[in-house]
Amino acid sequence: MKFFCLFIFLSLQTPLMVIGDRRLIESTCKATPSYSLCLSTLLSNPKSSSGDVSDLGLIMVGATKVKATQAIQHIKTLYRVHPELRHSLNECSQVYMAVVKADVPSAVQALDGGQPKFAEDGMADTAVEAQACERSFSGRGQKSPLTQMNKDIENVANVARAIIRMLL
Amino acid sequence: MTSSSDLENPLAASALPHSYAPLPDGEQPAGNNPTIRRPRKAALFLVSAFLVLLFVVALIAGNGPVQRKDLNTEVSLTAPEKVTPLLSRGVEKGVSEKSFHPLLGADDNSYPWSSNMLDWQRTAFHFQPKKNWMNGPVFYNGWYHLFYQYHPDAPVWGKIVWGHAVSKDLINWRHLPIAMETDQWYDEEGVWTGSATILPDGQLVVLYTGSTNESVQVQNLAYPADPSDPLLVKWVKYPGNPVLVPPPGIDSKDFRDPTTAWKTPEGKWRITIGSKINKTGISLVYDTEDFKTFELLDGLLHAVPGTGMWECVDFYPVSKQNENGLDTSVDGPGVKHVVKASMDDDRNDYYAIGTYDAHKGKWTPDNPTLDVGIGLRYDYGIYYASKTFYDQNKQRRVLWSWIKETDTEASDINKGWASLMGVPRTVVLDKKTQSNIIQWPVEEINRLRTNVTVFKDVVVEAGSIVPLNLPAASQLDIVAEFEIDEKTVNRLNGDDVGYDCVKNGGGAQRGALGPFGFSVLATEGLKEHTPVYFYVAKGVDGNLQTFFCADQSRSSTANDVDKSIYGNIVPVLKGEKLSMRILVDHSIVESFAQEGRTCITSRVYPTKTINDNARLFLFNNATATKVTASVNVWQMKSAHI
């Protein structure tokens, strides 16, 4: 019985907390190129419920970092299995290292410090790096094993960029 | 033991005893052959573009404190430099091995950008620190000082410190240790842009923006630890910092980049700081007597709706009649005032000319339709966070800007550096138009000229191209005049189609009277080339409009570099010939039309047009007129950068 009451109590709390913030999230995402990607990424992070636009930008930058880090790990695996793709894979690992080691930390520092344009630069560069990775395969006449991953990173970086632009 | 009279007379400074080895006088270390490249230093990455207009432009620094080098040992090559592949190219460039080494088996050739291509991009006579954010230039005690924003940890923006370099001639530089680190709570997150003011007694004070441990933007006071040290190596931060915090109504992150101070009629010092209220860019005004306590004026210096945050605001007088520059405090009937701001929104530097009311602390533009942020730009290419300083040594006002990279971050990491400073430019009011300024490379740059090749009265027929035979084409100073055929112009029917450098098709889109100009950094066969050109359009009313553009759309076969086309209209007055000057320095091209009425800075990253493959062409892609060109092309020696 106690458990049941607690459950009801908690269910009632959550929607009330989220309604106002949800509107901010929805209106922010509407101004990005991928509304549903934006919405699902932000909502899956509990910090989004109490954040301002800068915080939402930080969440999206964080999501970009996660995807780029995953890409680097996946590239390592592919390298062992597909030595014939090593040139392109090496190029891809370099560009995603640039994203994780340079673009993302710079964007975070920039959003924290009230210099959003550097964060925008970092996310704009991330999208370009993702495209460069994809082209490294076609440029060598090879089929890319990373197409979906590259596209995802490009999309999430573009969403981050659109959010950051609202701060300028 | 310097007497105060030495401080008041900076020109006597060279007589002061000091323990620093003299800087080589403009001699470039690698001999006279402009194709010899200097050994690459650790890469610098330009981090932020904020300019602090204090000292002569500073550029980026490398990892850790810069060691004072014995410059004579840097002279080396007598043979063209060979590029040897390294296991981890990053380390030699000063990039931290643990951060950036390739994850997988090293293979230098796997990346489309070969080290040869990346090495070529480094310039020969543009100031390039490792990380390049410009602070403020100043001339003090016989030296030009440049303090720049430097990020020690990565080739991107981050926690900024102040790098420092000095020069006797604005062209050859000596790197000095970091001037200011993020060692106080009030600048823990960054020692950002600031400005220097020279007081009447010769003292130098600096106001700069610190980003506090909680990322609040505040203004701080700093001054040289030893004013008698001509190199101003050590700096002291005022113990009572911060001297200014964001005022009520101003966001804690919209308060930065204090200007050089100027005198008010009451004898106080006045500064302005850019900010914004919603989307209106504004300029706050503060008065002070001691740079420690300030009074915020009720009104703003100026504001323009819709322009967003104003960064790196600059405010200075220009003479209406004379060709010399003016000290920032000068005012009077023969003077106009320029307000400039860097627009956060679109990354361009805008300026406007107007009238300053010293009693009210207000400035009004001469032409409100060309107000700050919506009118004229210093430069129609890549040019941001620029700042001027008054060079009392040569009585000129000098403009300097940060020029970022327009390639990828991955390339910047690989090549080991990012960003540079444009060539310093003198700024004066255009006496003929009275409605714009004129910028021109400082005359010291001419000392790098050598081996001139002259082409007189070259006729370039419609739709043709003329190769200009030169010993080399990566480091050039090109000065040219063009004439189009007057009979053709008169015979032509005008139209109202209009032209826009940015939106039209660049050098390949043909009109009756243009485009014509130069293809710089071109390969034989033009697989890669960068046209810099005039496009003349005749309107229905018979009037001519001239556009000046730089076209990067075919500048490189690489896909990951910016390929925009830049440019703007350039006023051409009756009786004037069309003239342009182009400085080519590897990956940067600076173009000037009509003696500096319209300027364009471009970054170019070719893959084939490097080393001995670079060429220069004259072209005329107009359909109706022939063009007659007279050209002087100098090879440019390398400087100490």
From TrEMBL, chain A:
The GO terms this record gives for MF are:
enzyme inhibitor activity
Instruction: Give the signal sequence positions.
Output: 1-20
Domain (Pectinesterase inhibitor) ranges? 20-163
Q: What's one Pfam family the UniProt record gives for this protein?
A: PMEI
Any idea what this protein is called? Pectinesterase inhibitor
Tell me the protein family, please.
Belongs to the PMEI family.
Per the UniProt record, the source organism is Cynara cardunculus var. scolymus
- Matching InterPro entries, A to Z? C/VIF1 (IPR034087), Invertase/methylesterase_inhib (IPR035513), Pectinesterase_inhib_dom (IPR006501)
Does Kinase appear among the keywords? no
Q: Keywords in UniProt for this one?
A: Disulfide bond, Signal
Automatic annotation (TrEMBL), chain B:
According to the UniProt entry, what is the EC number of this protein? 3.2.1.26
Q: What residues does the Beta-fructofuranosidase N-terminal domain cover?
A: 19-118
Q: Which domain of life is it from?
A: Eukaryota
| Keyword Amino-acid biosynthesis part of the UniProt annotation | no
**Glycosyl hydrolase family 32 C-terminal domain location, by residue?**
445-635
Outline the extent of the Glycosyl hydrolase family 32 N-terminal domain. Answer: 126-441
Which CDD domains does the record cross-reference, listed alphabetically? GH32_Fruct1-like
Q: Name one GO biological process term.
A: carbohydrate metabolic process
Query: What GO molecular-function term can you cite, just one?
Result: beta-fructofuranosidase activity
Q: Where is this region: Disordered?
A: 16-35
Keyword Transmembrane attributed:
yes
TM regions (residue ranges): 42-62
Cellular component aspect of the GO annotation: vacuolar lumen
Q: Where in the cell is it found?
A: Vacuole lumen
Quote the InterPro entries the UniProt record gives: Beta-fructofuranosidase_N, ConA-like_dom_sf, Fructan_Metab_Enzymes, Glyco_hydro_32, Glyco_hydro_32_C, Glyco_hydro_32_N, Glyco_hydro_beta-prop_sf
Q: Which UniProt keywords apply?
A: Glycosidase, Hydrolase, Membrane, Transmembrane, Transmembrane helix, Vacuole, Zymogen
Which family does the entry's similarity section mention? Belongs to the glycosyl hydrolase 32 family.
User: Which PANTHER family does this one have?
Assistant: BETA-FRUCTOFURANOSIDASE, INSOLUBLE ISOENZYME CWINV1-RELATED
Report the protein name in the record. beta-fructofuranosidase
In its UniProt entry, the species of origin is given as Cynara cardunculus var. scolymus (Globe artichoke)
